[in-house]
Specification:
This protein is α/β, with parallel strands linked by helices and 453 residues long. It contains twelve helices and 18 strands. The structure holds pyridoxal-5'-phosphate.
Length: 453
Amino acid sequence: MTATVRPTTAPAATRNYPFIKTPVPGPNARRVVAQDEAFASPCYIKEYPLVIARGEKAMVEDVDGNRFLDFMAGIAVASTGYGHPKVIAAIKAQADKFLHICGSDFYFEGLAELFERLAKLAPGPSRKRVFLSNSGAEAVDGAIKLARNSTRRAGLIAFKGAFHGRTYGAMSLTSSKVKQHAGFGPLLSEVYHVQYANPYRCECGQAHADCHLHSIGAIEELFARQVDPRDVAAIFVEPIQGEGGYIVPPPQFLPALRALCDKHGILLVCDEIQCGVGRTGKMWATEFAGIEPDILLTAKGLASGMPLGAIIAKESITKWESGAHGSTFGGNPVAVAAAMATLDVVEKELLPKVPALGEKLIGAMRDLQKKHPSIGDVRGKGLMIGVEFVKDRATREPAPELARALVEKSFEEGLLLLTCGKSTLRLAPPLVIDDVDIDIAVAIIDRALTSLT
Ligand SMILES: Cc1ncc(COP(=O)(O)O)c(C=O)c1O
């Protein structure tokens, strides 16, 4: 088969991607997939048969030489792209010195620097303290422990549709898909789920901007009937709900939660594991609300893909004693070096460009919405954009098959996408994309939608 470059706009012709030379998956990819499927535990999801060989900026090349434009960043992780030279240099320099020392028990310069940097980077004036984990879920579990230990209360409130991870504590807060709980019980006790503030799909059945009132009302109802607020340690909230559908709540939602927490001495935990580190156009999505959480959680984009998470908590609530919590690998020196370089790159190079790129991408998706009736809602901040597909705009009935088919078709055309929620396309590209990448991605999505509907 002749190799075909599939540029979609005139400037895109200057790029060497997307470039699809074999039908995907190609022969090498099929071999790897077969080996993987023969031995991997069956719980893995595997969205589509992408077998990566290398990457550069927002380009991913597979083992057959096909080149894709990535608009999912390895699930919102590759913040600085695939192998930013400054991040790679920091990783190599650290690897040359030492690979490991247990940060829970010993010291090193990079660790102390990252503690200080994250403590000062978190929103709000209070002095903070930092704990480093290996993953998002571990940060969530640590935050559950910290909140309970600090308040000596057991109750935890989280939101329907939330995704906080898959370890026992995090999984107990997660309320995204039932198969993430099925057969695993008993989960953590004293966890309560209430409706998230979803302007497009409020639980009252309407689409409306005051949905935060219904969400806060649901918590007040919980306090009246089920759990005394004096028994609640923390409310865990994603400032923009990620896996649940890239849902942007009204601006009053987080301030209302903050006020409720203050009234009852409850800690507010902002899970920024997916939406943090510059993705929304601010370092932390919480900053849009102008509130200070008691605990902020980060992971995913923090170290450009090296495994690292962090619990950044107000010093005033960080009362656990030495040895109460720890980790052998958390704060690994190579991951720490990657995080310092990532924060440099995000703060100096990428963050200033995210708002304009986000405006362009969301604007282009709103233009597509005018053309394609299957697009029910377009929402987002910065480069965290959700496009929800519906069977009918009037009923807002979700169209999961279309969202799925769009992702598959785009993969065949050289664009990497992912869904979230029931029928939402999530656009979470590496923050290194530019205007041309947006033109390419939008043209592929447009073409795919035209062919599918
Ligand atoms: C908001 C949020 N919290 C927690 C997690 C869990 O992170 P990890 O997969 O690193 O455990 C995720 C992962 O998608 C997430 O999106």
